[in-house]
């Protein structure tokens, strides 16, 4: 399907969190991790909204009828729905935004967590995108990710990355290699690193021994996100940390 049709397919599953008033507002597009949407997505979005940013939380699983069990068994293991396939959601949302009267489509960021970050990075590797910034939280940058090998072409968003020293899912080495490639290509890259953070440290989710919720680090991470948006989208309102 074309991008407009794809966006219409996604639209019933969007959660739009925006300031009061008609706008237009700067926008951040949020793409969840391989486990699906957790409450922390809304927490990041509300923190961004309080600084004047409209946030669109994109549910990539609901329109594809991917439930929680299938997500853990197939998406999180890399068996299906990889980042390059999901990248079309990023493209479709960027095509959809200019038709929204509340959105300033000239002032857009994209944020991704793990698998969502992979999708954003794949989109940037394959097309010219009007993004001023990307925020990457514990991004997957393994063998199937093209950023380290191809870079992002002529795309020049500001890059903000959050990594964990105890991340047993995506590790530290491969994300840092991808970020080095971006720096070598001339992109501005700012990284926050938590020595004792696991993968998904900002998600209060039980059942995965590789993940340990850290509310203190989650708060810092949200502040990092808000600062990234404030800095890259030219906001003058102070961040509400």
Q: Can you put this structure into words, describing what you see?
A:
The chain is of the alpha/beta class. It has one domain (3-232): Rossmann fold, CATH 3.40.50.1820. Helices cover 36% and strands 19% of the residues. It is built from eight helices and seven strands, in the order αββαβααβαβαβαβα. A seven-stranded mixed β-sheet has the order 1-3-2-4-5-6-7, with helices on both faces. Strand 6, helix 7 and strand 7 form a beta-alpha-beta unit. The model is unreliable at 237-241 (pLDDT under 50).
Layout of SSEs?
Blueprint: H1 3-10, E1 14-17, E2 25-31, H2 39-49, E3 54-58, H3 68-75, H4 83-96, E4 103-113, H5 115-126, E5 133-137, H6 147-150, E6 158-164, H7 173-184, E7 189-194, H8 215-232
Could you list some keywords that capture this structure?
8 helices; seven-stranded mixed sheet; disordered C terminus; Rossmann fold; 241 residues
């Amino acid at each position: 399907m074309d991008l407009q049709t794809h966006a219409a397919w996604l639209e019933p599953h969007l959660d739009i969190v925006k300031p009061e008033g008609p706008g237009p507002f700067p926008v951040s597009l949020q793409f969840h991790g391989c486990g699906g949407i957790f409450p922390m997505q809304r927490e990041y979005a509300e923190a961004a909204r309080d600084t004047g940013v409209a946030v669109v939380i994109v549910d990539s699983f609901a329109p594809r009828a991917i439930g929680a069990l299938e997500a853990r068994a197939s998406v999180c293991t890399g068996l299906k729905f990889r980042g390059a396939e999901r990248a079309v959601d990023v493209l479709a949302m960027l095509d959809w935004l200019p038709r929204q009267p509340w959105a300033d489509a000239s002032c857009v960021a994209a944020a991704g967590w793990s698998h969502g970050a992979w999708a954003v990075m794949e989109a940037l590797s394959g097309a010219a995108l009007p993004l001023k910034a990307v925020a990457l939280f514990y991004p997957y940058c393994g063998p199937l990710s093209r950023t380290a090998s191809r870079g992002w072409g002529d795309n020049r968003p500001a890059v903000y990355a959050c990594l964990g020293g105890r991340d047993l899912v995506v590790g530290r080495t491969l994300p840092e290699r991808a970020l080095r490639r971006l720096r070598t290509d001339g992109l501005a890259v700012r990284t926050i690193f938590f020595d004792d953070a696991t993968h998904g440290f900002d998600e209060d989710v039980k059942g995965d021994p590789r993940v340990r919720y850290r509310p203190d680090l989650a708060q810092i991470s949200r502040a990092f996100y808000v600062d990234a948006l404030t800095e890259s989208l030219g906001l003058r309102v102070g961040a509400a940390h």
